[in-house]
Fold this protein.
Amino acid sequence: MLALIGYKVILRLFGVVMIPQDSLGIVNKRFVLFGAYKALPDGKIIALNGEAGIQADTLAPGMHWGYWPWQYIISIERFVVIPDGCVGIISAADGIPLPSGRIFGKKVECSSFQDARAFLQNGGERGSQIPVLPPGTFRINTKIFKIQLRDAVEIGRGKVGIVTTKEGKPLPTGEIAGKEIPGHNMFQDGQAFLDGGGFKGLQEQVMLAGRYFLNTDFVSIEEADMTEVPIAHAGVVIAYVGDEGQDVTGDTFKHGNLVKKGQKGVCVEPLDPGKYPINPRTHKVECVPTANVVLNWATGKSEAHRLDERLSTITVRSSDGFRYNLDVSQIIHIPRTDAPKVIARFGTVANLVTQVLEPTIGNYFRNAAQGADVISFLKEREERQGEARAAIAKALEDYNIVAVDTLIGDIVPPEELMKTLTDRKIAQEQKTTYETERDAQEQRQKLEQSKALADTQSKVVDAERTVAIAEFQANAAVKKAEGEGNALKAKAAGEAEAKKTQADADAHVLVAVGEAKGRSVLAVGEAEAQVIQKKTDAIGPQNYAVIEVGRALAENKVQLVPQIMVGGGTGQGNGGTIADVLLANMLQRQMSAAPEPPKA
C-alpha cells in the first residue's frame, strides 16, 4: 500500500494524474504559463477559456499528463450517485443571473449537468435549477453544482396529488387554479410546464397514484383521497374552474344553471358509482342518494346517512285542545337524472331536508291534527296515513323528488287519554286470553275424552260383543215367546170362541125364558086384576080394602091392640081411617129396615 502511494507521488511530480474509475478530477489552475495572466471576468467563478481558477472541464477516470503540481491543484471527487427512490436537486454556483421575478434557472442542454462548459455556454442560469437528477450515477463538477438528495414523491393507491407550483404565469383575475398544461410528464419536466404557459399556484390537474421525480422546490404536493361515489348514489360535480358555461336546462328549470362537463358550474351529467381522480380544491362532488332514503321525525332516532339527525318528533294540537307527539317516517327517492337539479337548487341534500322536507311534512301533520280529536286520529290512523302520502307526494313533485311513502310511527297522546286506551286494550287482550284459555280447555277435554275413549275401546268392543250376543239371545227368546204366545193366543181364541158360542146360546135361552115369564106374569096380573075388579065391583072399594088389610095383618102377625088411637072420620081433619093407620105402620117398618145414608 505504501509502495502504491509512493508510486503515485512520483508520478504526480512528473505531471501525471491518475483518476480512479469511480471518480473524476476537478482542476484548479493556479496561473497561466507563457502569457499574460488571464483573470476570470467579474462575477464568474468558473473558467472556460484557460483562465486561472476552477476549470469547467473535469478529468475523466484514467491517467492524464501535463498537470504539474506547481501549476494545477487536482481534487479527486467521487461520482454523484442518486439512489433509487431519490432525486437530485441542483443549484448552480455560476451562470447568468436570474431575471427579476424568477426563482429557478431554466433548463439548458448540458448532459444532466455533467457538462459544465455546455451549461455555461448555453445560457445556464445561476441558482436553483428547475430540472432534477433522476436515480443514477453522474460525473458532475461539484465545485459548480451543489446536489441535494430528496425523496421521490409517492402518491399512494386510492389517492391523488394536489399540485401547487412556485413558478409560472400569474393566475388571471377570478381564477383559483391554473388550467391543465400538456406535455410536462406530470410536472416532472418543469421547463415544459413553463414553456407551455403554466400558471403559478394551485393547479387544476392532479397526480395519480405512483412515484414521481419532482423538483419539490418547484412544486409542492398535497395528498388527498380520490373522490368516491358510493353505490346507490349519483355524484353531482360542481366545478369552480373552467370556461363560463351556458345553461342547458332551458326555460323549464329556473332555479339554477346546469352546464356541460369542463365548464364552470353544476355539471348536468352526474357521476355513476366509482372512484374518480378529482381535485377537491377545484371541484366539489355532492353525492346524492338515488336509492330510497328514510327520514325520521323522531327525537333520538337517525339513519346511517345522518340527514335526519336534526329532525325531531312533531308536536301537534288536536281539535279538542290536547297536545301530543307524533313520530313520522318519510321515504323519498331522487332520480339520477334529477340529482343535478336538486343540487343546483339547494346546494346539498341536507339543505333539501331542512328547507323543504322538514317544514312541508311538519306543517302538514300539524294542520291534519287540528281537524280531528286525539281518539279519532288514533282510530283513523291508516286513513290519515294515506291522505298524508298523497298530499306530500304532490307537494314534493315541484322539487324533483319522488315521495315513495309516508308512515305514521309512534303516537303519544296525553297520559289520561292513553290510560283509557290502555285499559281498553288490556280488557280486549284479557278477553282474547280468556277465549284462548277456554278453547284450550275445550281442546283438553276433547283430548281427555279421546284418551278415555281409547283406554275403554277394548271394553267397548267387549261390551258391544256382549250386547250383540244378548241381542241375539233376546231375539231368540222373543221369537220363542212369540211362538208360544201365538200358540196360547190360538188356544185362547179357540176357547173364547167356544165360550162366546155358549154365551150366545145361554143368552138366547135367557131371552126366551124371560119373554115366557113376562108373558106369564102379564097373564097372571091381568087375571088378578080382572078378579080384583070383579071383587071391588061386588063389595065396594072401601070394603075390599078393609078385607085386604085384615088379611095382611093376619099374615104379618101385626098386634091387634092398636098402639095408636084411631078416630073415625072420613080421612079429613085430625082423624084417619084404618087404612091410613096400616099404611103408616108399613112405612115405619120400611124406614126402620132401610140402611142409614153415609155421612158426608
Remarks:
- The chain has eleven helices and 27 strands.
